[in-house]
Amino acid sequence: MTTAQKLAELRAALKRHNLFAYVIPNTDPHQSEYISAHWQTLAWFSGFTGSAGNLVITRDFAGLWTDSRYFLQAETQLAGSGIELMKLNVPHTPEYLDWISEHAPEEARIGLNGQMFSVAGVRNMKKAFAAKSLKVMQVGDLTAETWKDRPAIPGENI
To answer: Whole-model pTM?
Structure first.
């Protein structure tokens, strides 16, 4: 499945859930530094394999926010994907929460898989969105239906 097909399916899910945007972080439910293949949703969806990033998809935009360690890698891996590289900590590039706040209409709904964000992260998101009354919505993993050959959750003992 191509990235364009994945974007089309996720955008259809945005419409079904009445969402302005969906956020995919590069993490797992434990906020681990090293994540198993099952939780590498950002890499599967975008093709970007760096260890740091957040992907925001709207009905007409897709952007990947990452830091300078990964600019060259991301440019190469995102080429032709329909996903724009958003370079963190570069003048005139807003953080992803600021970008959403700037582009979303009043009271828009922002979707996420609540397993992938810490409580503090969701609180920070709500605070960033408060001025426009944006709503953070736990809608689960919207990529699960599309990712047919997803690796299993690891079952080994710690």
So the answer is: 0.94
